[in-house]
TrEMBL record:
Biased composition (Basic and acidic residues): 123-132
Annotated source species: Trichoderma cornu-damae
Region: Disordered, residue numbers: 123-189
Composition bias, Acidic residues: 142-176
Protein name as annotated: Cytochrome p450
Top-level taxon in the UniProt lineage: Eukaryota
Length: 189
């Protein structure tokens, strides 16, 4: 992987632009590129994309606890309701990257057993170098040294312990925490 990143780093802006335009023939890649470009233009100081949480960041302001990511992998939640009416012969394979993006609720993170919709269970610094990414390395690996495990949070502002519900008084299907897409969350420290 290091050789690939060295090659990418050696590209001219024109070469990188041409490759990016070619890759955008794939609709899912074009969508990601558009989202990243929009965010990078809105925040000119953001110059890198984190390989762990997929968010743009400013390397000069990359302090500890800016990145929230999962150290494990997403696995199919065969016991959940998401795939009850899904016939792989008719609707296509379930265990794919596309399905992980389209139906994160049908998956769970093997590092923390949380729904695929839940934000990261680890806090650390953003990482732009894929060879140094801690994402998918497995919970508790030595590569997580210095990063902190995030416990499930109480989203209530009333500080009542053990009330078992969320702010609207109803239990959510994931045990009381509201599901949020991983890639749209930003932490402010």
């Amino acid at each position: 992987m290091a050789g690939e990143t060295e090659l990418i780093d050696s590209l001219t802006a024109e070469q990188a632009h041409a490759i990016l335009k070619y890759l955008c023939d794939d609709a899912s890649i074009a969508s990601k590129v558009s989202a990243y470009a929009t965010e990078l233009k809105a925040e000119p100081r953001l110059t890198a994309i984190c390989v762990q949480c997929d968010l743009p960041f400013d390397p000069s302001r990359n302090t500890y606890k800016k990145c929230r990511y999962h150290s494990g992998d997403m696995e199919v939640d065969w016991d959940g309701d998401c795939w009850a009416d899904h016939d792989e012969d008719c609707h296509g394979a379930i265990d794919t990257e596309e399905m992980r993006e389209e139906h994160p609720s049908g998956f769970f993170w093997n590092c923390c057993d949380r729904s695929g919709e839940q934000e990261g269970c680890r806090l650390g610094r953003h990482e732009a170098d894929p060879s140094k990414s801690k994402r998918g390395m497995g919970y508790g690996s030595e590569t997580d040294e210095g990063d902190q495990r995030v416990e499930e949070e109480d989203d209530d502002d009333d500080d009542d312990e053990g009330d078992g519900g969320d702010e609207d008084g109803e239990d959510d299907e994931d045990g009381g925490t509201d599901s949020r897409p991983v890639k749209k969350q930003k932490l402010s420290v």
